[in-house]
Write a structure and sequence with these properties.
This protein is of the alpha/beta class. It is built from 10 helices and 12 strands.
């Protein structure tokens, strides 16, 4: 007889209600996965909070009933479905608030392992941050595309041959040209969004100044990226980007704290 089976033998005819509650402020994410796991455990689900719900300490996110072994297994599995996603959603929502009215996106979710990619993608969505630079059809030309094509103009030109109306989003690193000349070359080739991805504010200032001088600021959106942290947001926002791409500061967020307690 296994230890848990031995311990619970006197309780085998009893059932217990329990609740999972938030222990800190945040945003719930992972609700669907939590409910799915609860059904697999055979729990009688009483209530589940909605994805994206605002949480304060004590907020119940899940209430159910089951026997002693089910309750124990619930504590081992259900909170794992919401801890990290809720932490990510909470961090992202805080960054969205601090960056307002500038759009915040988190494209780095694509770099996450397949096992957790879907959950963290949903967490970003639940926070109010974007997953993509734009909702329009676009092609993203990163530094490796540019290197392989031998330059920005060739990469953008090839993308435009596929579909002249598809928006070209270009990652600017200032490798083969200065960051300003790279931006100008991209615009002349037909780029619609330029992402200054150096993490250097002076680079963004220079590109924005060129956009104003050359007369294409209103027709081309400017994004900034490169290790953006919450502490830097105010300095970035004041420069007037259209989009800020934040990666690790969102996806490396700590778990949001939850607790499971038997209540009857």
């Amino acid at each position: 007889m296994e230890l848990r089976e031995f311990l619970f033998k006197p309780l085998q005819d009893r059932s217990y209600s329990f609740a999972i509650r938030a222990r800190e402020n945040g945003i719930l994410s992972g609700a669907a996965r939590m409910q799915e796991l609860a059904m697999e455990l055979g729990l009688e689900v009483i209530s589940v909070a909605q994805e994206g719900a605002l949480l304060v300490p004590g907020t119940p996110v899940f209430v159910a009933r089951g026997d002693a072994e089910m309750v124990t297994r619930a504590e081992e599995t259900l909170m794992g479905a919401i801890g990290k996603p809720s932490g990510v959603a909470t961090a992202a929502a805080d960054i969205v608030k601090k960056a307002s009215p500038v759009k915040v996106v988190c494209g780095a979710w694509k770099k996450i392992s397949q096992a957790t990619k879907g959950e963290l993608r949903q967490a970003v969505m639940s926070s109010g941050a974007g997953l993509r630079m734009t909702e329009e059809p676009f092609v993203y030309l990163d530094k490796n595309y540019i290197r392989m094509f031998g330059g920005v103009a060739a990469a953008v030109g090839r993308a435009k041959l596929f579909d002249p109306d598809r928006l070209a989003v270009v990652q600017l690193r200032g490798e083969a040209q200065s960051i300003v000349e790279e931006a100008r070359t991209a615009v002349e080739a037909g780029a619609g969004i330029l992402m200054v991805d150096t993490g250097i504010l002076a680079d963004f200032k220079a590109v924005k100044a060129a956009a104003a001088t050359d007369g294409w600021r209103k027709s081309v959106k400017l994004a900034f990226a490169g290790g953006v942290t919450p502490e830097e947001l105010s300095n970035i926002v004041v420069l007037g980007p259209d989009i800020i791409d934040v990666g690790r500061a969102i996806l490396d967020a700590p778990l949001l704290d939850f607790g499971l307690d038997v209540e009857g």
